């Protein structure tokens, strides 16, 4: 068996390409990332020649600029003859594929370590193969071959001691900077279990559902759960006016139905409500900032978040909802004509903003009517309206489903006693229950979680349940 055949499982071309993509994509790269990777990897640590070549070029480019936005452009200007010497693939196509499959920033450390580990194993195999050749040579002395083999393996690990130091530095950073890595709890233990603690900085979380599933109510619930952890929350409401969001907040905190708070002519328990609101103003310290102003550019959205972060701090952002964001081209001030393209641009920008501001961004999204046509109306990721980019850019996708809503529309006639009795039993089981489906989760497991939903009070609480995750 040849040495090449022995090495066939000691490389991962996908990981290598993902790492190249991570360094050149504005969504995942950042100033200093090439220096960080270079502290562990060298060009010969990449198995595929074109990946090693690109990494060498990136190190050269990095000496000239640390602007992530220029890395891709400068790579495209690589001498064609130099590139053809290592690959027959068109460099533009290769880089486009690398950027599309760019690894999330949260995974870059593990990918760097894995690429290095595979490189070390290949070098070990090469060293051992040479020793086998020497052993078969009658003129060699066994003791000398053994000594040379041990020495070469030891030198291999001595040369790569920086890898271990790099890993220890990361661990020390994690131990000494708890605030940076502590996720924001959703306020629901089973959801936190699936999300491995909650919402993390740099994540884009999509919360989607059909009409009347309780998306806005659940978003307010999550936002207030973050406030209860002394987090500063920015809530963009593009569907409801600011006062309506405030009504939902008060109903959650005070236990009143939000509809009662909206109608001032309702005299029932009015004094009690006023007293409770005063108590809320005195007792509650919710730091939630609400904006219902139209956003027509992503730069304006980012600036508003950045200003809040600079002035008072910012821990998490909520957007209600994605399809209500109507951008104008910043070059000609005209509306985008292609909605799918606009959504694609928005989701990628939101992911980048989450990384740059080091906050999680939770964005609500509509679902298409696809679920309505299925017998089981539980939503799927493919139901995401203007999908594709949403599904790709999101770190986590949560889908809401309320069986109660659909059962109410399918009540049998009372005279159909057996059918009505069966329906009534299902209604009892489904009443005030919302199913949160974790359909995508880069940081943990997928699965389903049931919560008790008091939609009138915009309040969700945990239910005892059996494990329903993968």
TrEMBL record:
One Pfam family here: DnaB_C
Organism listed in the record: Candidatus Trichorickettsia mobilis
Residue intervals passing through the bilayer: none
Listed InterPro entries: DNA_heli_DnaB-like_N_sf, DNA_helicase_DnaB-like_C, DNA_helicase_DnaB-like_N, DNA_helicase_N/primase_C, P-loop_NTPase
Protein name per UniProt: DNA 5'-3' helicase
Catalytic activity annotation: ATP + H2O = ADP + phosphate + H(+)
EC number: 5.6.2.3
Location of the SF4 helicase domain: 177-467
Superkingdom of the organism of origin: Bacteria
Family from the record: Belongs to the helicase family. DnaB subfamily.
Keyword terms, alphabetized: ATP-binding, DNA replication, DNA-binding, Helicase, Hydrolase, Isomerase, Nucleotide-binding, Plasmid, Primosome
